[in-house]
Amino acid sequence: xxxxxxxxxxxxxxxxxxxxxxxxxxxxxxxxxxxxxxxxxxxxxxxxxxxxxxxxxxxxxxxxxxxxxxxxxxxxxxxxxxxxxxxxxxxxxxxxxxxxxxxxxxxxxxxxxxxxxxxxxxxxxxxxxxxxxxxxxxxxxxxxxxxxxxxxxxxxxxxxxxxxxxxxxxxxxxxxxxxxxxxxxxxxxxxxxxxxxxxxxxxxxxxxxxxxxxxxxxxxxxxxxxxxxxxxxxxxxxxxxxxxxxxxxxxxxxxxxxxxxxxxxxxxxxxxxxxxxxxxxxxxxxxxxxxxxxxxxxxxxxxxxxxxxxxxxxxxxxxxxxxxxxxxxxxxxxxxxxxxxxxxxxxxxxxxxxxxxxxxxxxxxxxxxxxxxxxxxxxxxxxxxxxxxxxxxxxxxxxxxxxxxxxxxxxxxxxxxxxxxxxxxxxxxxxxxxxxxxxxxxxxxxxxxxxxxxxxxxxxxxxxxxxxxxxxxxxxxxxxxxxxxxxxxxxxxxxxxxxxxxxxxxxxxxxxxxxxxxxxxxxxxxxxxxxxxxxxxxxxxxxxxxxxxxxxxxxxxxxxxxxxxxxxxxxxxxxxxxxxxxxxxxxxxxxxxxxxxxxxxxxxxxxxxxxxxxxxxxxxxxxxxxxxxxxxxxxxxxxxxxxxxxxxxxxxxxxxxxxxxxxxxxxxxxxxxxxxxxxxxxxxxxxxxxxxxxxxxxxxxxxxxxxxxxxxxxxxxxxxxxxxxxxxxxxxxxxxxxxxxxxxxxxxxxxxxxxxxxxxxxxxxxxxxxxxxxxxxxxxxxxxxxxxxxxxxxxxxxxxxxxxxxxxxxxxxxxxxxxxxxxxxxxxxxxxxxxxxxxxxxxxxxxxxxxxxxxxxxxxxxxxxxxxxxxxxxxxxxxxxxxxxxxxxxxxxxxxxxxxxxxxxxxxxxxxxxxxxxxxxxxxxxxxxxxxxxxxxxxxxxxxxxxxxxxxxxxxxxxxxxxxxxxxxxxxxxxxxxxxxxxxxxxxxxxxxxxxxxxxxxxxxxxxxxxxxxxxxxxxxxxxxxxxxxxxxxxxxxxxxxxxxxxxxxxxxxxxxxxxxxxxxxxxxxxxxxxxxxxxxxxxxxxxxxxxxxxxxxxxxxxxxxxxxxxxxxxxxxxxxxxxxxxxxxxxxxxxxxxxxxxxxxxxxxxxxxxxxxxxxxxxxxxxxxxxxxxxxxxxxxxxxxxxxxxxxxxxxxxxxxxxxxxxxxxxxxxxxxxxxxxxxxxxxxxxxxxxx
Length: 1237
Description:
Elements: E1 28-30, H1 43-49, H2 57-60, E2 68-70, H3 74-96, H4 103-113, H5 121-138, H6 142-171, E3 186-190, E4 206-212, E5 230-231, E6 237-239, H7 242-262, E7 264-266, E8 269-271, E9 279-283, E10 286-289, H8 290-313, H9 324-327, H10 330-336, H11 345-351, E11 355-356, E12 367-371, E13 377-381, H12 382-388, H13 391-403, E14 407-409, E15 414-419, H14 422-435, E16 440-445, H15 451-462, E17 468-472, H16 480-483, H17 487-498, E18 505-510, E19 530-536, H18 542-552, E20 558-562, H19 569-580, E21 588-590, H20 598-608, E22 616-618, H21 626-638, E23 644-646, H22 654-666, E24 672-674, H23 682-694, E25 700-702, H24 710-720, E26 728-730, H25 737-750, E27 756-758, H26 765-778, E28 784-786, H27 794-806, E29 812-814, H28 822-834, E30 840-842, H29 850-862, E31 868-870, H30 877-890, E32 896-898, H31 906-916, E33 924-926, H32 933-946, E34 952-954, H33 962-974, E35 980-982, H34 990-1000, E36 1008-1010, H35 1017-1030, E37 1036-1038, H36 1046-1056, E38 1064-1066, H37 1073-1084, E39 1092-1094, H38 1102-1112, E40 1120-1122, H39 1129-1140, E41 1148-1150, ...
């Protein structure tokens, strides 16, 4: 009798290499399987099997075999034993009766007995049937049958062991924050129920679903929610090119699908078996049965098996089977999963290229990034996110960021914020340290900071979980005390941030004043933390540039160098080229607007042949011609790191463009090439087309305004038919016409990679639009189509509408400035009723009236994807507004609605107001330049008392008076979401201003209030001033042209002495005079937050200017002062000159039309010799003659910070004009405008 493979040797059973695994239960031991008939069998069955030629002895010892650490319960073992015996007995009875079971009967028998979730129906069951069929034919003994079943059981167990070990490697993998651009765990399921068809499965629509990584790290005490891995509540992302997707991610998906189906317990992660759940939630409030999800998982596994079979078949040896899951051996599976240990950052970033998402959509699947207590990164759902972090502190942080007009992406744990004062910084740091939910911080200091401020940031970061820090110090202005610190001591203060235990990456943007940091070598850190610098030099003198170039040769921290607008010329480019030959860290170099010609480009090209780190080179707006472009093209043939090259606005012609095209045929790294504004003709278009047919890396090609006609468009279209990498093509403002559009349409029918196509201002007309619509019916990748200014009428719109009914990828469609009327709008509305992907529809400046608007409104009642609708400058009127209002009552997706300049009156606005009382999604409503009046404002005010989502409301030019303002003020007292209110150019007087002021005393959300061109006068200004003393959120106040005089200015000045949030105050055209200026000057001596003050056209004379000048000597926050159209004269200019010798923050000073004359210019020239912060000085129309020009000429010889000097409309003679031109050539930073005019 044949000996079983499980026969004991020397009294002990030979055990398989791997123990079976049951993912349902952890840490449970089990004996090997026993196939003896259970003692509970009936007498009939016992008698029937008594003569079986099955030696049960080989299996008798199995129950006493040494226990193995596996995860199956004894109950499960007994169940399997019973089923094996039942099947064996039934088979033997059928054989002895002379009526062996058919395949169908065998299938039914096994299906009714082998039900444990451990056994995969798709593979194990069919394999047993296959084996048993063969044994019948051979008349084999039932013992062999049992042995085969046990062997298959062992193979399935070994399969699960391998999967579990690989899954454990993934779940315990710990990557850095930067390696988690999106969640790392996911599965793929068919969109709907599907029956597996080996020949057509790739036609199935699949959706990717992310997995919440909750576990012990998210489970606080007394948690009321379960903390096990589960599918995120999200509809999933549609997968494009599923065949390629499964090819790339198949092994990883296999592990994740098995994980979700069978469950496990590994490293603090618990995954319940799918069978143990009642329902599965994939989207909020939408539940699917476990059976439905299980069927989808099985379908996905079949597809992976199909892919696995192809992989094996392509390897040496035969591998052909119609049932891959059953036939794949353990070694085959091991080979397939060999390299799977989790996805790294680059693989996760590539994931997005396979998924269909809108341009603005984050690939996060409703998950939030968080850190565990030991600093590891996890992606969890909102419920687990809130359970992990203290909600009240997170809410406070949200409020602070909102008031600062920053951005808080809670899903990524990232905050981007500009801190404009020490007070704001203190409050923000305190919230960050307590909330514990911030992982990435991008912060910009814009006040005169000290190194003690850096220490304050350091202390806050010690208590936080921030691991990525980007600190922008471009506006960093050290006090006199701090300037005494040595550069090494200053550097040490920054280096301490690197030593923080949680910190992994620090990137600091340095101003020109800290350029010496580039020469320091970083000390060794106690832990791994990447430190890098970016240098934003602004204007730079020759000596400073030489020092920088030398420092770069040995620098190991600088990654980004911004030298835009410095006129370094060819000599500077050559010096940088020498530096880059040895530098090994710089990745981004911005040289736009630097007067670099062919020689400079040739020097940079030589460097690119050997440099291995630079990825972005910006050379736009220089003077590079064919020779320089040819040199760059040669470099691209061998360079293997550059990804972006910007050559827009140069003078590249035929030869240069031809060589660049040739380079693209062999270059394998460049992804973005910008050639806009260069001349592309037929031959060049053909050359580019040829390059695109073979190039496999370029993703973005910008040919905006490049004189491209229909011939060139046809050439590019041919390339698109075969190109498989280009995703963005910008052809706006060319002349491709309808013929070019037709050619591109043919290409789109087969192209499978292009996602963005911009054809704005190309005169494609209706014929072109119709051709594009045919392409959209079959194209499955294009997401954004720009058709602005193309003379498209109703026929074109109707054609494109038909395409939208079947297209499932387009998310953004721009139709502005065409000729679409009501019929076109009706067609578009019909499309919106069924389209489920379009999120943005721009119909600005067309011919749509009330009827077309009614049709669009009907569509909005059922459409569930559109978020932005732009209807400005149509003619919708009150009737159109009323129909839109009805739609807003039920629509739950629209967030932005632009209705400016549409002849809407109070009736239309009243309807919209009623809608806003129930609508809970709209955040921006633009009603500028309509005629809503007080009645409309009152109606909207009632809505604002209830509405809790609207944040921006535009009422410019709407004839709103005091009654309307009063109503709005009452709403502001209770509204907690509105941040921007635009009331520019209405009829609001002092009483209305008073009412708004009362609201501002208690309102805590409004940041911007625009009241320019009203009539609030002094009384209104006084009322607003009282409000500013109490208000803590308003940052921008526009009061231009409001008949405010001395008294009003004095009241505002008193408010500025205590207010700590206002950063911008505009008072243009208010005639405050010298007295008002003096009052404001006193306030500036105390105020520490205002950065922009606009005092244009105020009749301010020398007395007022002298007072302001005294304030500038001590003020340390104001950066912009606009004094144009006053009467400061030469005396005032002299006073300002004295202030500029001391002031270290003012960057922009506008003195147009102030009659300063030569004396004033001479005085200002003296200040320019020592001032080191002023970058823009406008002296237009000041009666400056040759003497003033000569003085300015002398100042420019030494000044190294001024970048813009305007001398238009003065009286400078030709000789002095030439001298100034010479100074401009010598001084490498300043641009002089208007000399001699």
